[in-house]
Design brief:
The structure is a homodimer of 360-residue chains.
Chain A (H helix, E strand, L loop, with lengths): L1 E3 L3 H12 L7 H15 L2 E5 L8 E9 L1 H6 L6 H13 L5 E3 L10 H9 L3 E5 L12 H4 L7 E4 L5 E5 L3 H14 L3 E10 H7 L1 E2 L1 H12 L4 H8 L3 E16 L2 E10 L7 E7 L1 E7 L2 E5 L3 E6 L16 E7 L8 H7 L13 H11 L1
Parallel strand pairs in A: 2-5, 3-4
Antiparallel strand pairs in A: 1-2, 3-8, 5-9, 6-7, 6-8, 10-11, 10-16, 11-12, 12-13, 13-14, 15-16
Chain lengths: 360, 360
């Protein structure tokens, strides 16, 4: 157990934006909510995945929706607690631990705010080790844990509690409700026991995000991030073009980056659905989900989300291996390139990088 | 109090199809479910609106969705009870009375089936005095009663309980969920007290439907129905053309009828959204919602739903005055022609009929 003080939030927000792989919403908005909650209620107690007792009842607390809308529409503040209480009422017993659903973006911060105001311990781990756009895309699904009962609340006072036969159905139904709510909803879901937390969650990712944020802010931050994540440099260049539309509650689009320095004469295309899904250099796929594709400001090393990408930005694109849980058959079925509609075999980034070095 | 035996269902189904004004789904499907439930559990106790005690907790039990889909997709049987129990759990105390939401179509029958298997009294009245396509379109809304908490269940085992700030929001959210459920959902909603039942419901409509069914089956049934409903003959002709599409969970479209006998040389156009909304003879509006526009088989007097309308059918189109509750400002705001997108003033059918007689 350790305490997470307000001062940790700055690094954590930067690290979460790096692990967010372009999506998950801008963590700075969530950071303000977390800051406010810690100031009011004191620092948050963080427990390791292994410290969660057998009789625990833990649940993901998160925000759902298109990050493009999340920037404009800040939660009122108590919707997440409302979702929490609705889920707890449905379960009929107290929820003892708050779980981050994803370590990327705003959803790394909202559970901190909720844990502070609910005075509950926060688990150091998450269900993605990054960010993903759909509800069923988390490691508990790989381990057969049901996403429902799930509670949803909006900023106007509308709520829903749903129960579905499969986690794909949860996504479908919750997505429609979220669109009706005005493209964002605050949600509580994936309730689980201590043993389920210990098996299915990716451990230590809160601490990892904090570390990454600290590293990124140092001189030569990009090198430090690459080292910490055992990642690879994919490309350096200038953003030439960004297409983006909010469709069915998602921010979808692509960015075209023209090479500079060592990459001059080449083009890198990034396609995203909230998060970066695939990176294509000229005609060659150089990285795909579930590996992490990360866009950093080439000068400052600061992460840039898909909705912040603009013409003229000078960026470094890097890729890093995802958690091993995603590299199983069940994992790739949920979040591999084919699920997202790309007719591309998943090849771990380490192998792709090796291959490209061989060619060069 | 009286008992509703299985034998009453035949007349009731015909009467409900008449009052359904083309929508509400085919009551014959619901009749089979009601029959089965009464055979298993005994006749249903029917109580008048005035007999509902102050401390009652009553709720609408109904099916939501496009009638075009309802014909093909018969409820599994226990989804409505599931919705009932979910609403009851949310309310935290036992529901004592079953209320029909609409007297038109399948929703006149499903509450009978539910009352039989739940062994609860059924109230002789409903929230429309006819059928309407949207959830907020019922007299309890006119009296400020909230539609939520509302429970929804599908045939696969998916469920939702929603709570909304306004009944228009209930419609929006429940409609999306229903579309996701495959265009039909079994629902429990509009929980209310005894005094609320007595003020807001349209009384005696179950008995009215039974009477209408008996009348319609007699020789000269159309004349009998006209007399019982204080209605007016609008047109007699042959269906020349039906356009129909299922859109956003509704069956929308229009039917063109070419005149025969006294109406030869004229055309009547009916526009519908589940129910008939407006009747236009050549270029003149001859009837609009909330008055009842009813299509009957010209030979047998049997009612024909919008989804059964076919080229070549010989039909009589009649109109009848709606309940007075719909003719208030609040009522017309909810279900007047303008709400449905027609730039037409509501004129009670009695006045329209008088005017046309004056012209003739």
């Amino acid at each position: 157990m350790r305490l997470l003080p307000e001062e940790a939030l700055h690094d954590l927000a930067i690290g979460a934006a790096i692990l967010g792989t372009g999506g998950g919403g801008n963590p700075y908005v969530g950071r303000l909510l977390a800051q406010q909650a810690i100031r009011r209620h004191g620092p948050v107690e963080v427990v390791a995945v292994d410290e969660v007792p057998d009789n625990a009842l833990a649940a993901f607390l998160a925000m759902m929706g298109a990050p493009t809308v999340m920037i404009e529409k800040i939660p009122r503040g108590d919707e997440l607690e409302q979702a929490f209480h609705m889920l707890q009422d449905r379960l009929g017993r107290p929820i003892s631990h708050v779980l981050p659903a994803e370590i990327g973006g705003i959803n790394s911060m909202l559970p901190i705010a909720a844990a502070a105001s609910l005075r509950l311990p926060l688990v150091d781990g998450d269900g993605m080790g990054r960010a993903f756009p759909e509800i069923q895309m988390c490691t508990p699904t790989v381990f057969g844990i049901s996403a429902t009962p799930m509670a949803l609340a909006d900023d106007k006072g509308n709520t829903a509690v749903i129960e579905t036969v499969e986690n794909n159905w949860t996504e479908r139904l919750a997505r429609s409700i979220t669109v009706d709510f005005g493209c964002t909803a605050l949600i509580a879901l994936y309730s689980m026991s201590g043993p389920q937390v210990r098996t299915s969650l990716i451990p230590g990712t809160l601490t990892l995000a904090e570390e990454l944020g600290r590293i990124a802010r140092q001189r030569d931050g990009i090198e430090g991030v690459l080292e910490r994540l055992r990642g690879f440099r994919l490309f350096e260049g200038k953003v030439a073009d960004v297409e983006r539309r909010t469709l069915g509650g998602f921010a979808r689009g692509q960015a075209r980056i023209e090479g500079l320095d060592a990459d001059v004469g080449s083009t890198l295309t990034l396609r995203f659905q909230n998060e970066h899904l695939i990176a294509v250099r000229d005609d060659t796929v150089v990285a795909t989900v579930p590996d992490l594709i990360i866009v950093l400001d080439a000068d400052t090393g600061e992460p840039i989300t898909t909705e912040e990408l603009r013409y003229g930005f000078r960026v470094a694109v890097i890729a890093a291996p995802c958690d091993e849980r995603w590299r199983t058959g069940a994992g790739l079925e949920l979040v591999g390139p084919r699920y997202f509609g790309y007719d591309v075999e998943y090849v771990p980034i380490e192998e792709r990088a090796d291959a490209s070095r061989t060619v060069a």
